[in-house]
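Suppose a colleague, Dr. K., hands you the sequence of a protein chain of 372 amino acids and asks what its three-dimensional shape might be. Before reaching for any lab equipment, you can write down a predicted structure in token form. Begin with the sequence itself:
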Amino acid sequence: MKVLVVGAGTMGAGIAQVSAMNGYDTVVVDVAEEFLARGRERILDSLNRLSRRGQVREVNEVVSRLTFSKDYSAGKGANVAIEAVPEKLDLKVQVFRNLEEILGPEALLSTNTSSIPISEIASSVEFRERVVGLHFFNPPPLMPLVEIIPSKFTSETALERGVSFARSLGKVPVKLAYEVPGFVSNRVFIRLLQEACREVEAGEATIEEVDATARALGLPMGMFELADYTGIDVIVDIWRVLKDRGMTDVPCSLYFDKVKRGELGVKSGRGFYSYPTPGKFVKPNIQTPPKVPFARLISLAVNEAAWLVSTGVVKTEDVDTVMRLGFNFPKGLVQIGRELGLSEVERHLREISKRGFAAYEPIGNLVGIFSR
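The predicted structure, expressed as tokens, is then:
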């Protein structure tokens, strides 16, 4: 089988590497030789690291399955195409139009978008029933999760092909029943960051106290630490996509102010914390004791999970799988909520919603919703 990946950036290179590691002849297409060279270097560096750990036996064999080109025609005959270009709708639409010109009607067309609704991309192409979302997590060679998202046009055959392809890469697929902006991962992720922001802007805790609480809860990173690691500009982009497409907003300026100042997190060397050099992550040394009640910190995210389950987008166990495998949570979000007490989570939601935060209005009885 032949796989075509469009985009040689961090995600595209990682997806291409995973494809080649699993035996597929893989073509990587990008607009400039410098992008392709950088992508090739990323893949070689990653493969060599994996080889030193004993996780890849034959680096040269994997590399032999990779082809890099500026010409889409190099991908002719591909069975699966994956678009992994920047999060700009017009750019993605153009990629899919190019794919239609070179691939036959049997090819699966997929996008790795993390937030743009699949239907907005698929509506601009002729073979829209073949378009499906395959949302990999960074870095693709290490992260086991792939969200599988249908558009309103996607055929059941294409959706199941997406699931099968993800499994063939050794990934764990979580299939959404229908698409919602941000899917499961980014809707819950943004809600965690919004509550962290609200805590600080309300004067209930400092940035360090919020992050100390997250670490004390057992999460791999504090909320603001995670924002720095992800890229605060990336978070603001996702936030805007969700807000513009109907997600009830939580007014908060902390992240937006950071972007205006060019303090984007690890990538710029400074965000909510400072780093040795741009691009070099060192875990912040937080000595402040935790202050935020655990149930309050996760309350908005749990409410979002309840909305996803109550509307039939996914099942409870799917939410937990996404947070464990996509965000390295030690336990599922709902499982953590149950252990803390869903009634306590609801209490915090009601209390905050009374202050005028509509997003915190409880979706319903959380115990009942999560028993489905």
